[in-house]
Write a structure and sequence with these properties.
By secondary structure, this protein is α/β, with parallel strands linked by helices. It is built from eight helices and eleven strands.
């Protein structure tokens, strides 16, 4: 089951899609314009978005699907987005893919195809465990580097001692900088690792590790934010 955002201004289509997505076991937030979409994206942890490209202006201000998509790509680079485009509008389709859509469907589409493509898109996007590699384009606005193989980090030239669990937790957060990493995602990684200092991975242990990491990150320009009920997010501190 995934938590999806559906952005579609055609009421009939929106209601129909909503019902089908829920039948398929997803939970769905549905909105009919780009401003509401942004508000939801900012306040909710989502697994994927179904986005109509042809959205109406809001109070006279243009806010079509491409603008929403560009905004998503800046703020939530890994969030999978499937765009819906008008039939035969090749320009729209190309613009959608250029703006970072993961997949698209042209209207009218078959509901079974939408569900299949959505499932494939969500599968592809499942959060991978930290495997030592970091995004090559990680923003350099902070001082932290992690060793890709050994449980070590650096704040500029200062070595930071990390336990294996601290390293894998920090790596996971760093890889998804600016995104919420669910507790379950961390615990799932820890489950594959040996207990540390007699501590078996669990929700309480996770809080202890986050607390320790926060101390170690002081002065790094990074902060671990607790996102209530969801997990943790590594974020850049305001300068
Ligand atoms: Ca539309």
């Amino acid at each position: 089951m995934a938590h999806l955002l559906l952005v579609e201004d055609d009421e009939l289509l929106r209601d129909g899609l909503c019902a089908q997505l829920r039948l398929a076991g997803h939970s769905v937030d549905a909105v009919d314009d780009g401003v509401q979409a942004k508000a939801l994206l900012e306040s909710t942890r989502l697994d994927g978005v179904v986005l109509d490209l042809g959205l109406p202006p809001v109070q006279g201000v243009a806010m079509d699907g491409i603008m929403v998509l560009r905004w998503i790509r800046q703020r939530l680079p890994h969030l999978p987005v499937l765009v819906l485009t008008a039939r035969d509008d090749i320009d729209d389709r190309v613009a959608g893919l250029n703006a970072g859509a993961d997949d698209y469907l042209t209207k009218p589409f078959d509901m079974a195809e939408l569900l299949a493509r959505l499932a494939a898109m969500l599968r592809r996007s499942r959060m991978p465990a930290f495997d030592g590699t970091l995004q090559a384009d990680a923003p350099p606005a902070h001082r932290l580097r992690l060793d890709p193989q050994l449980p070590m980090g650096w704040l500029d030239e200062d070595a930071m001692e990390l336990t294996h669990r601290e390293w894998s937790l920090l790596g996971l957060l760093l890889k998804h900088l600016g995104q919420v990493v669910g507790r379950e995602d961390v615990l799932a990684v820890w489950q594959t690792q040996a207990p540390e200092g007699g501590v078996v991975g669990g929700s309480n242990a996770l809080e202890v590790y986050v607390h320790r990491l926060r101390r170690k990150l002081q002065g790094s320009g990074l902060n671990i934010r607790n996102v209530r009920g969801l997990g943790y997010m590594l974020e850049l501190q305001a300068p």
